[in-house]
Amino acid sequence: MSHKLSFIIPCYNSQKTLEEAVNSVFTQNLTSPFEIVIVDDGSKDDTRKLIVDLSKKHSKIAYYFHEKNRGGGAARNTGISKSTGDLIYCLDSDNFIAPNMMQKMIDYLDLKKTDGVAFYERRIFKGTNSQKYESQFSNISDTSVILPDLFGEHPVALDNFLYTKRAFLETEGYPEHHGFDTQCFEFRFLSTGHKIHFCPETVCYHRQGMNEKSYFERVYESGDFSKNMYLIYEEKLFLFSPAIRKFIINYDIFQNSALDEKSLPEKLNRLFTENKTGFFIQNFETYLKADGADKYFAEHKNSPEITDLFYFSVYYHKKGNFDESINIQKKLLSNGVATKITYFNLLRNAIALANPVKKSEIEKMVSGLLDSMQSKKQKIDLRSGVFRKIKRKIEHILNNQH
């Protein structure tokens, strides 16, 4: 089967590593035609000059610039929208691919008749010494990766993987309203029923520890780890059992933000290990499709179950029906579901009503508001609590809507 492969390279202050990433594409000896689409996401260093120089050296390079930093998800989506291939591989600007790997990946995708193919071995190295690395191997071979494989004692790590543009379009692309774009994309990909296989004897190199922090590192250090993971899970909350939904709704995504056993993903991994059959709703596979959320809503929209109501508020928010989402959240509050996440979602809706902007901008405004309402630390902590302030802010916004 004939294919064209589009390499998408998102960049942000990548002048020290980008050329190595680009050069690795030209070591693949591809028999399939290919292109390289580089998107600079508002770099402050000399990345743009390097991109222009590389494009003069290699005719297969096309490039686009974001005038402002919009995040990795936006950069990937821009690159894919400009691509002409039927296959996509997003190569991070600080990583590179071992020689002669990508044609194996393409051939394996055709052999397995699958939607995506991931590298079997990731070699993680620090700085510039790629000869000294730690290997991470897939714990799945031959069979396809499915949604439950993202949870448990040894969850699958996909990182960037090769996939069809058709599957990308059915998956809604990368999120632009939070910084965990690759983590969210793999969750979206599998939760819409697409299959991924690991290709044997394939290797990619994953860099850590450069001076410029990665998108993930910047988000993590801002304290948004569990919050961003919640934003990933909430999109497909209907797939989880009522017990797991209840756990997520009551989880403190603001305090438990470290990458440790208290984080939201680790807590869910433990719950999955303890009760695999009770983690998802019984027939969750029937909703693993592009319109799965609409199908679930149509079949359950009259459900009085509290966790269904919570999901419906999320569903309406995503559809842009902020008034209806707020009405449901008011019902939740009157039924005692006064969790931090409930107030967080109410704040998102209130800001969305007051500011008709893109979803990514809404999230930035919410984050900025949350940060601004943090009380200044003193030797004696007499803070009234950030979420009391949030409730007052919500009440003020809602009272001035009409």
Write the layout of secondary structure elements.
Layout lengths: L4 E7 L6 H8 L8 E8 L5 H11 L3 E6 L5 H11 L4 E4 L5 E2 L4 H11 L3 E11 L6 E5 L24 E3 H6 L10 H11 L4 E13 L6 H7 L3 H10 L7 H9 L13 H11 L17 H9 L5 H14 L2 H13 L5 H15 L4 H14 L13 H14 L3
Parallel strand pairs: 1-2, 1-4, 2-3, 6-9
Antiparallel strand pairs: 4-8, 5-9, 6-7, 6-8
Helix pairs in contact: 12-13, 13-14, 14-15, 14-16
Q: Mean pLDDT, rounded to whole units? A: 90
What would you call the structural class? alpha/beta
Helix and strand sequence: EHEHEHEEHEEEHHEHHHHHHHHHH
Instruction: Return Rg in Å.
Output: 22 Å
Envelope shape: globular
CATH architecture call of the largest domain: Alpha-Beta Complex
Instruction: Quote the beta fraction.
Output: 5-15%
- From the N-terminal CA to the C-terminal CA, the straight-line distance is 59 Å
**Total helical elements:** 16
> How many domains is the backbone divided into?
2
For the record, what CATH class of the largest domain applies? Answer: Alpha Beta
Biggest sheet details? 9 strands, mixed
CATH superfamily of the largest domain: Spore Coat Polysaccharide Biosynthesis Protein SpsA, Chain A
State the total count of DSSP E strands: 9
* Low-confidence residue ranges: 376-383
Percentage of helical residues?
A: 40-55%
CATH topology name of the largest domain, in short, is Spore Coat Polysaccharide Biosynthesis Protein SpsA, Chain A
In short:
The protein is an alpha/beta fold.
